[in-house]
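Q: Structure tokens for this one, please.
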Amino acid sequence: MRVGIVLMIALMLLTTSAYALYYTNYNLYVMWSRMYTLDKFGFAGISVVKDPIALGEWEVRTVEEVILDGLSPDTLIRDLSRYRSTTIYGMDPGMKASPWLPNGTIIEYTYTRATALFEPVEDIDVRKDVKWYVFSNLHLNDIWWLKPVGVRYGLWITVKSDDRPLLDFSCLKLVKRGVYNVTCPGNTSTVYYVDVYFMYAWTGEKQLCIFAESFNAGEYVAGRRAHTLLLDYCRPAERPPRNITTAVSHWGGRQSRLDIYVDGARFDTVWIDGPNAKLYTAPYEFPTYLRRTMVAAYVDLNYPGVVLRPLGSAFLLIGNDTVMAPPRYVLKEKGWAFTQARVELTYDQGVSVLPGRTYDNSTVYAWPVVPVKIHGRTTELPYRALVNVSKLCPGGAVLSGQYRWVGGWVEVRGPTSIYCTKYPITFVTPTGNATVTTDFNTTLTWRPPPIVYPNGTRLEAEPVSVFVDGPRTVRVNYSRVFYLVRVVTPLGLNETWAPRSVAVSALAVISLGNGTRWVAEGLASAVAEGPLVLAPRYKRQYLVRLEAPVNSTEAWVDAGSSYAVGLPDPWDLPNGTRFAGLLINGTSAREFRVDKPMTLKAQYAEVYYWASVETPVNKTAGWMPKGAVLKFPDIVDFGNGTRLIKPSVREVAVDRPVKVVVTYAKRQYIVAIVGVEEWKGWADAGAVVRLNATVVGGVEYTPAEVVTASNPGVYKPLFYAVYKTAVRDVLGVPNPLATVRLCNATASPLPDGSAVVATYTRELCQPTVEAPPISPYTAAGAAAVATAVVLTLRRRKK
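A: Here is the predicted structure, written as tokens:
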């Protein structure tokens, strides 16, 4: 007996080329129901076929051809002369995932979905389209209409319950070239065989059937019950299916479920005892009906017969929710050789069953691959692979190349490029994954949420920036560690998170907002090297406000203690103010017991201001009562002929500290003018004393100099004295021989007798005139008259 192994396949499909040869060879001379108790090699057990050549070349069956001639079933059973021996060369047509590489190396692989696609024939007449035979040594159950025989379209799958091995390979016994028997039980997983098929029956019925059983190799080798029949029934069906799909998924704690769909409708569910079940392919074969660990989409006969007309085709896809594809390595028969037909494998149709005979069923086909660029990364997928674009790109996709849509899937038929308009970015954190879908060719910045553990530890991570050019999985580095710090205060429990190795402190002061607070006594801090509890001792304090005339203060005082007012009396302030006569809240008390928030109002009965006065006479300073008035005289007489007049300030009211500088607008001197003019009075210092022109005794005096009051004293200013007169004799005739004198100045008259004498003088001058009594003019006139008289007299004498 041969036992298969499972090859892992999900999104990735193997890319090796060429296939190993696979042969079978049975000579059957007993009823089919009994034939499985013997192996062609003469042993019964669990086998591993490590060399595909060891299986032989052909399935040759010696059967009986029945000569009908319209006989009834009862006659056929009784009349054995109607049977003659013949030989058919049969195979089991199907598209099967191979458990061998081209070089004969065994492989195993798992996947989660398998689909059989059919191009069935819907008008098959089982009695006419197939020539049926019976086994030698005819038995009642082998009559066609009792068995019944028929044409089947089906999907055979194998499910492995968990991740444990299927066999214990520590004890293999060589049976024949490439074939080994397993002789020890081991800790093995359970395998489930499921066969879902539609059958055209000899009786004319159309049925959709399911068969399922489980087998555990370890239990079998140990001699315990190993087989369990799970399902075995048929339902009427109108037509053969075009699609049979099986999908395995985790269910609950320790179970998986295998869901079976026929043309998109759920047909049944097989429950698997294992949390991580997978569909499975491997080169194992188990006893009791020679169950093989395989997956195959098939079109076959369930009893020896020769196909007389085309029966259609079967196409196999395996994979998962994202990619379904033809197996990378394919056989075109699945193992039980009842069907003599021509079996062809094409990459577009899969396995087709036609009239004739296949002379070679040993080729393992390497399925062609095509380059497919997904999210900008090139991979190879088998030709006609289906990519679930609706799942791959939930937000939409942009496609190019050789493809066609099949529902929400894209069938790859040549080089194809698939880009999503949006991509999922999965962030892996210590507590699970978070997926964010965002636009292609953008930068996503994600802020990881904090992770809080029950032990009082919190992890945080910096924001993570990712350039979105495809689906990405990013592991988030939670590098910042915080510890829970619980602080117990009079207000209750407060919790906060502190960075690791950072000093944390309880509140030194807790203000209640009503003039009351709590103050921690002693140290209340620690370094956060783990979760902390800080519970410092606190004391209550009250706020005492002291409202003073200036510089009001407030202080926090321990509850129950005394507060002493330290204001001085008198109190001299730096700003030139003095308070005296201190009262606190109207009393003379200076100390108060603090048992609640308090406001103390300090008042002074007397207020003084510092007054500084500077005058031209002196400087004085001192404390003056508030409201006092400082007055300054309009005239300050120094008693030395000097005085000041017009003060800049006449009076100042002391309502604040003051500094008064009194200046006088003018300094005056007592000035006496003597000499020509007499005047005495006060003159502004530096002022010019105005002198007037005057006439005294006929003499005109005009000031000849400026008198400036530079000091007190007597001034005799210089005047310019001018005396004007006309000198005549007694007869009134000008007397030019006269002399006019003014002080020390003299002047002679002009011929007309006018005379002007001038001089500078500081005293009054007395003018004088000295002249002969007779003017020379008078004398001359007299002489002339005398002469004239003489002449006249002389003339008269003549």
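A few notes: The mean pLDDT is 82. Residues 670-779 form one domain.
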